Amino acid sequence: MKAMILAAGLGTRLRPLTDSRPKALVEINGRTLLEITLTRLRDFGVRDVIINVHHFADMIIDYLTKKQRFGMRIEISREDILLDTGGGLKKAAWFFLEDATKSNIDDPFLLHNVDVISDIDFGRMLQAHKQTHSLATLAVQKRESSRYFLFDDHNHLCGRRIKNKDTNNEDEIARPANRPQALAFAGIHIISPRLLNMISENGAFSIVTTYLRLAAQGENITAFRADEYSWRDLGRLEDLQKAERELKLE
Hints:
Helices cover about 30% and strands about 30% of the residues. The protein is α/β, with parallel strands linked by helices. Strands 1, 4, 5, 6, 8, 9, 10, 11, 12 and 13 form a 10-stranded mixed sheet that branches. Strands 2-3 form a two-stranded antiparallel sheet. Strand 2 and strand 3 (about 30) form a beta hairpin.
């Protein structure tokens, strides 16, 4: 199984740490976020990874060289201009299609944000992805967030919701659903390579735009309920500091 780590962001919410390093090389208890993510993927059996880079890109490349690429095949997708999640994945599509044949075009891959850590069971998530024959399976949880995916009774993506303090919730409905459930995204996807040839968006764009368009066309984008697993977003300085304190106690 292959994977992509999204690590190109500027990490503005982690300043001043990211004034001198990329978000991927910010440390928690002596380990970089990139090391934590790569180790998780390697422990699951992933041996081929592509990482998109932009902010202090050369520091990430030098770091991987010093770490002997953690014993993995690691390719770099350098973005001169930030392409967001969808544009970044589209630029790296070659990595997942390089060995594609009719027999293995449906072999899924993992897409993982570098600034989240969890113990979400990738094996169970992969099994669910295969059972539902989904284009993409999204790890989601019932928790507070400013942004939600909306799913119908069959766990199919049907829209998204953005919470606004000053106005009512803003819902974007891709396809009708009776009382859709709002679930927070965990930053982990399992994707069929079939989806890559269905990305029609260009330039810098969110993969959510693609998901909603495909959902509106009746394609199968599904939820994997990860409520039972621990999960942390380390994209903000206060979240990073809290995680350091709590993980030291475990």
